[in-house]
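Hello,

Our lab assistant flagged a job as stuck in the queue for most of the afternoon. It eventually completed. Since we weren't sure the result was trustworthy after the delay, we are filing this so someone can double-check. Below is the sequence as submitted and the structure that was eventually returned. Let us know if re-running is recommended.
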Amino acid sequence: MDFFESQDVARRKTSLLVVYYMLAVALIIVGVYLAFAATFLGVQAKTGGETDITQLWNPLLALCVVGGTLAIVLLGSVFKIAQLSSGGESVARMLGGRPVEPHTNDPQERKVLNVVEEMAIASGIPVPPVFMMDEASINAFAAGFSTSTAVIGVTRGCVEQLSRDELQGVMAHEFSHILNGDMRLNIRLIGVLHGILIIALIGYGIVRTTAGSRHRSRSSNDKNGGNMPIVVLGIVLMAVGYIGVFFGKLIKSAVSRQREFLADASAVQFTRNPQGIGGALKKIGGFADGSRMDSSHAEEASHFFFANGLRRSFMDMMATHPPLEARIQRIDASLLADAGTVAPVAAPSPVAGAAGVSGLSSFAVAPEQVVASVGMPRAEHLDYARQLLAALPDSVNDAIRTPTGAVACVYALLQDQDDAVRARQLAGLQGQVADEVLMQMKALAGPVAALGPGGRLPLADLCVVALRGLDAAAYAGFSTCVAAMVSADEQVDLFEYALQRMLKRNLLPHFEKVAAPAIRHKSLAPLQDACSALLSSLAYWGADETGDAEQAFQAGTDALAMPLSLVALDACGLNAVDTALDAMLAASHAVRKRILDACVHCVASDNRVTVAEAELIRAIADALECPMPPLFG
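-- returned structure --
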């Protein structure tokens, strides 16, 4: 199953979630109605009135119960979803996580940060913030609505008890959830389940309140037990609420169990090391604290975790995770033997043909393989990331871990090679940025340039975590300065466009409310004009002559299998590309796959892709929310 199919599967799981949700709500309404009807009959009998079983049906009461229950359930879900609207960070804090600072000196925290950075570069996504939970158990999770709002959560026990290879296997599993669209579904699941559990919470509140007032009424000569029917109502509502508990476990089990197997398999493909994740699972099975989470919110977030975070119970048949033995058996059966040991992993070999590592200025690509790599990073991508991080000078590595240093690093990436343009850029920054930033930018210019063209976008991705530490005013000033540096030479090259687009997509949701795009287009027909504008712009960007542009455009059109017309050069440009990409976000992932494939065919029509063109392809993929690993020759 490729990335695009995974997204569709996740959306189908959402449909299954809706069916279970509606069934749970219907049963809860029936239960609530019977609870109120029986309570009214009990009150009537206690006061001497006549009662009849036929009085259980009361149309007015039914209408009130249906309306009231639906309102309570929906408001409970909406409230919880709004509470988690900031994405993964809200889930991490709910579970007691604290952010791990990018500049931390704690060796255990540095270990997990380094692993996460490698995974992010290899996956083609910005480095997600890491949250540490001070629990002794071995567990982890990924949460967020998208790659821009994703976070990684990890327990202290996971970092301390696992070797680096085992920790890498766990992180590869969590990155699979990020790439496969599981996170968005998981957060929605918390909101939905809160809505169907809220009836039980109301019943508990009624019992507590009424029992307390009944105790006080005894001292006021109330010996008739007048509050007893209300207490019974509260108890019945609590019992009815357990319908929600049952369906909550059923829903989480239906959604999560198979996705855990898929994430395990993806982790093995990613790391080329089954003994890493297999060894981690084996350690959980033999560890005293296991993977159990002590957080009071562990139940509602149980489907997020790497391994089962709850105590074993009679409802284990509906657990969110398959048994450890079953997972290990699928990964590497030899690890189940008591005498089995985790073998050392061979050192990675140099990546041949990787732009930015080998220093290649251009290389050939197979468009089908490029598109197939989306959301499916492999071990060679991880080797590339490891080598790139090892090549970072200490001055650059230290700078990207603070907001000030990350800002200076981005400015250093944008410095022009032409002396006159660079002088205009510096003049534009004077008075707009602090002297400390200017000094750091000048000091970083040489080391950043030495990384080569292929290291530029990965370095910018590494800056994202620290840049999220800016306040709103500082971010606004930073965005203004970036735009000014780009426009200093009155033109925008491919790298500048790719960098601006990436920074905006991955930083803006942290400073402004950005609505998730709704999927409206399941075919290419409504996007015909957008496709023409995008492919025309790509064709002109990579061509020296009109004939070359026409050839490139035709290659993209043939791949799209859709009649398009080359747009005039003066109608193309960055605005046209931005408008086209924004429109394409409303397309299904199956449609986006075809568009991305056409873009790669267009750019690679001359059988060579420059580093700048590779950056542009990855920027387009990122804009379409299709994380693309580094491109190789």
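-- support follow-up --
The delay was a queue issue, not a problem with the job. The result is valid. The first strand starts at residue 98 and ends at 99. DSSP finds 24 helices and six strands in the chain.
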